[in-house]
Amino acid sequence: MGLSKQDFESLGEKILNLVEADGAQLWLHETEDLQLRSANNDITSNGVVDRFKIGITVNYGKQSASIEINQSNDEAIREAVKKVQQMAKLAPEDPEHLPPVEPGDYLTPINFSEATAGMNPEDALKQIRPVIEQGRSAGVDSAGYLERSISSSAQINTNGVFIHEQSTGVKFSITARAAEGRGSGWASTQVTDVSELDLAAVGDSAIQKALASRNAKARKAGRTTVVLEAPGVRDLLSILSWNLGQRNYDEDRSFLNGLVGEDQELIGNQIFGENATLYSDPLYEPAPCGVHYYGIPRKKTMWIEDGVMKNLMVQRFWAQKNGIDPLPWPGNLIMPGEGKSTDELIASVEDGVLITRLWYLRQVQPQTLLYTGLTRDGTFAIKDGKIDGPVNNFRFNESPANVLKNIVASGKQERVLGSEGDSPMHVPPLVVKDFNLSSVSEAS
Amino acid sequence: MHRRDWLKGTSAAGITLLSSRWVTSAEAADALSEKFPRLAEVALSHATSLGASFADFHLMQTDSESLFAREEMVQGVDADSKLGCSVRVLVDGAWGFSATENLSETAIRKVTESAIALAKGQAGWRAKPIELEILPAYQGNWELPIEVDPFTVSLEDKVEQLLGINRSALNTGANYCFSYLLAVRERKWLANTFGSRITQSRVRLHPSFSVTLTDPKQGGFASRESFLPPRAAGYEHFRDWNAVEEAALAVEQAKEKMAAPSVTPGKKDLVIAPSNLWLTIHETVGHPTELDRALGYEANYAGTSFCTPEKLDDLRYGSERVNIFADRTAEQGLSTIGWDDDGVQTKGKEFPIIKDGIFRNYQMAMGQAALIGRDGGSNGCAYSDGYDSIPIQRMPNISLQPGTDDAVTAESLIADVEDGIFAEGRGSWSIDQQRYNFQFTAQVFHKITDGKLDGMYKDVAYQGNSVDFWNACDGLGGKGTYEMGGSFRCGKGQPGQGAPVSHGAVPARFRQINILNTAEESGKKTASKCDCSGGGTAWA
Lengths: 444, 540
Fold this sequence. Notes:
The complex is a heterodimer of chains A (about 450) and B (about 550). By secondary structure, chain A is α+β, with helices and mostly antiparallel strands. Chain A is built from 10 helices and 20 strands. Chain A has a 6-stranded antiparallel sheet. A 5-stranded mixed beta barrel of chain A has the order 7-14-15-17-20. In chain A, helix 4 (about 120-140) runs parallel beside helix 5 (about 200-210). Chain B folds into 2 domains: about 5-260, 2-Layer Sandwich (PmbA/TldD fold); about 265-415 and about 465-515, no CATH class. In chain B, strands 1, 2, 3, 4, 5, 6 and 7 form a 7-stranded mixed sheet that branches. In chain B, strands 8-15-16-18-22 form a 5-stranded mixed β-barrel. In chain B, helix 5 runs parallel beside helix 7. Chain B starts with a helix and ends in a 10-residue tail after the last helix.
């Protein structure tokens, strides 16, 4: 990592000076990733990887093209500008093309930590070693992945936009497997500031789940009440968020079209349970994110409040066509919780299943946003408010829309990882009724 | 040269030669080939002097071009070029890896030191050292044979073909249509301390479209995606596709799908076309037989495998007619290449995974065969998806071989089905982390009644257990029915890497497979339950 805000400004100016098109947008991005991967209680692969990208989009009227390169020498940039201009001149006019965005009112991002930026490979190896040794001592096979990222970027255009952002993040997940009794447990964390990292606690959680999930009993598939821990909740909310686009709804090809009557408005309508709230906020301290989306400012935005649909994401062209403001895709998602402990959530369930995490989520039916996937790494029966031992895993077929209608209770928010994307999220575990565990999986 | 130096205006002549230029330029590749021996020498000698018992140096350039057309508009004309290098070292039985886009000798020494430090940081607390077999030293060049370089075809030609697809769909009644074309070129230079110096180049192409019909009155919509698979091929793969005709057919099939009865769940016989079966092969045979998965190396991400080493040469994976073969040499195979990214020559390393229904071999990278006591070493299955990714074990082309009777076709397989379904086109896919329980959909599910196609079903998914499924196979198409499908980016590893891979298949029949009604799975009442089949909407 080497470029300052001034360096980005200079580089941006040099590139824009080469551009002869009507308009141009630049995205300059420098990252340094430190990666440590382990399996079978040893480090397996690792890496320190530097990356640099220059993205250039130019337009002549409504003709436009984009190019991305990773070499920053004079000749490479000149060739890229020349090439992208040639491409744009040959491209047919796009009636939906809009000129580069005008400067907006941008928040000051809070997703950078000096401590994280200063973490070196030796620090990371020192942090991960005790977690690996913890697995050896417990007699389990552990496999994990730690990644520290430092990112610095600038969004620049010919309308005067210059946004410089720096961000840091550390993510860690670990799977512990007990050969005898086929137990498996998983835990994870994600932080902006490395000083908040507690790898030992995450490792211990995975090991305890692995030991507790040995010798699973058979349980039949079927609709049931589940305690869905935070990793699974974030997966389902991520999926939901990808499908909250205004244009698809207006074009009658969204799952949202099936949730309102012919004469009803979607916005302002309660289509989910009254305990379902979802919002995004770049300055939310437990899980902050970037403050713009391709130059459009991100602000605190309520998507669903008390079950009522409040906003949909609106692309620039669709906003202009319909005389509304664009609303960019969020960089984080937050679901408030009731703050109950997992034990309290379990205590509220007479008969059900506790799910540690979900896996291999894929869309089955866009009309209802039906997704399928599987439980893994710690699935337990709940009977009369208590854990009643480990059970087999399940394939589920369920829609996040149904989940938001069927929330019974919620716990304390956590910033964890899931199987679907790794953008910052702060979500609670949920008790969800009538969750469709469709078939049994023999995987353990 | 450091990026800051560029900003200060100090320029090094050597670096200018290594410009990405416009990436398709053969000149730029020639310049890299010229520079490669010196850069490799810098990396490998430095690594050796710092204590590496093995090291390799990868220089890689990946260029891509993508075009996206929505209805009658071209909304994406994009190009991308990535150039960089990496150094991988083995020190005292531990790996270290580091990568940079900076091709100066100073930067290469720095990443070598960074890789060495990562490896040495594990000293004293590793449980088991990593051990490698000794590989032959090769001096080689390999280039994928293609007819027309897609990067030399004019933008106008490509755009016209995409818009032609969209026009065909819209004229046939689609409300929406998008089409795209993605072309990728990989150039790789590999040097290792065994003495190999290898240069390779390949191209792959992914043309595709999707049509959508909406029915606001009934509150439904339906889509149908194209069947043409991606291939390791030149522009001819796109040029020769009769996409205009297929787009019109896709719209008619989407119309039929919207009006089709919702399927009654339960056991049915299933005939699967290669356009759908390739993905089932990928998920139920490809991933379970990756040795790194079976040994726990992917436990934290993709998972492990039911197919554990004690099952080698013992597990009846499928019925006797099932033969599944792996190679990296098949014509137009997305995984096809001369040497893998460990430097193992792929020619002569082809192998059966399932022979006459029995599980016979794993996919392996360097150093893995010895872990299960197999002679012969790696079978050439290492791949890294960019200069910034460490090579890991990835899938070769894995293909279901034709049956023994050349006269068998999809029609003849269907003819022996009383009540069943014929599936075409890749749909949704999901499988558990040990590869037992799968669930797939398709683009089109045809109803089979008394040996003949009898309209369509909607709301269909097929679900089962991998081994039970392949043992239920009782019919395979002959040689003439063989087609190759594939995936442009199969995900694996942490950090995630995308690998291209092809899967050949013939139409195949499976008896009494579990069929789900996806509308019922979502909690909706369906036509199958309300006895109004033949019309209406599944999600009303």
